[in-house]
Amino acid sequence: MQNGFINHLDLSVADLAISSVFYDKVLGRLGYTRTSEYEGEVPCWVRARAGATLSIGLHQARLATPHNRYSVGLHHLAFHLGSRAQVDRFHEFLLAERIGTVLDAPAEYDYTPGYYALFFADPDGIKLELVYEPRFDPPASA
Ligand SMILES: [Zn+2]
């Protein structure tokens, strides 16, 4: 058990079918497994490793208000990747699959040394990020 780690994250989406296709591809490529849907209608993807499990679920929005990351609520959601090459390959994957909207192609940012990220949006404009940060690399073995 990893106390304090995020256990699950649920997003409200405008069109459950469209977003399910998108998240099937994106989360599938990130190693998540689509699970049986809970509450009868919630598509859910799960990834578990070393005592931490994260599930991501989708809910049909009940209000037509579009997402705006500059209003109160979620600004963006970032996923780790293990290398710059993986970030580049994910970018190529998005373009090849014609899913999502690339907001910023892979580039280095000065947030932390070597920070390398790709930003894209889901079908509702929710901003997603894939990031490689060398500071999280496992220590080199002697
Ligand atoms: Zn970020």
Keywords:
4-stranded mixed sheet, alpha/beta, 2,3-Dihydroxybiphenyl 1,2-Dioxygenase, domain 1, single chain, 142 residues, globular, binds zinc ion, 8 strands, 20% helix, 2 helices
Q: Mind telling me the C-alpha Rg?
A: 16 Å
Q: How many domain modules?
A: 2
Number of strands: 8
Largest sheet: 4 strands, mixed
Judged by helices, strands and strand pairing, the structural class is alpha/beta
CATH superfamily of the largest domain: 2,3-Dihydroxybiphenyl 1,2-Dioxygenase, domain 1
The portion of residues forming beta strands comes to 35-45%
Task: Write a structural description.
The chain has helices at residues 16-29, 84-97, and strands at 8-13, 33-38, 42-49, 52-60, 76-80, 101-108, 116-121, 127-132. The protein is an alpha/beta fold. It has two domains: 1-61, 2,3-Dihydroxybiphenyl 1,2-Dioxygenase, domain 1; 76-142, Roll (2,3-Dihydroxybiphenyl 1,2-Dioxygenase, domain 1), CATH 3.10.180. Strand 6 and strand 7 (116-121) form a beta hairpin. The protein is globular. The two termini are 29 Å apart. The protein binds zinc ion. Zinc ion is lined by residues 76, 78, 129.
